[in-house]
Specification:
CATH class of one domain: Alpha Beta
Strand content: 5-15%
Oligomer: single chain
Number of strands: 2
CATH topology of one domain: Erythroid Transcription Factor GATA-1, Chain A
Organism: mine drainage metagenome
GO biological process, one term: regulation of DNA-templated transcription
Shape: elongated
CATH architecture of one domain: 2-Layer Sandwich
CATH superfamily of one domain: Erythroid Transcription Factor GATA-1, subunit A
Order of helices and strands: EEH
Protein name: DNA gyrase inhibitor YacG
Distance between the termini: 77 Å
Keywords: Metal-binding, Zinc
Pfam family, one: YacG
Strand order of the largest sheet: 1-2
Number of helices: 1
Length: about 80
């Protein structure tokens, strides 16, 4: 019996940024992107909040972002126990 070792087929997918072909393999440092440029463009879009994950507003969001704790003036000192 002989054992043959064949390299697994490399899968090609569409680059999420430009739509071009991209090698989906461990040796592609930009996977799933086709290039460093496409990876950086996508990262920049997330960083500038061009992409957002849709969520339902929570009860905390309805108060305009103010704390729901007791109001304090700027001159109050924290209480230590």
């Amino acid at each position: 019996m002989t054992a043959s070792t064949t390299a697994p087929a490399v899968r090609t997918v569409r680059c999420p940024a430009c739509g071009g072909p991209s090698r989906y393999a461990a040796d592609n440092p930009w996977r799933p992107f086709c290039s460093e440029r496409c990876k950086n463009l996508d990262f920049g879009a997330w960083a500038s909040e061009n992409y957002r994950v849709a969520t339902q507003p929570s009860v905390d969001d309805e108060d305009g972002g103010e704390s729901s704790g007791p109001a304090s003036s700027s001159g109050d000192k924290p209480i230590s126990h």
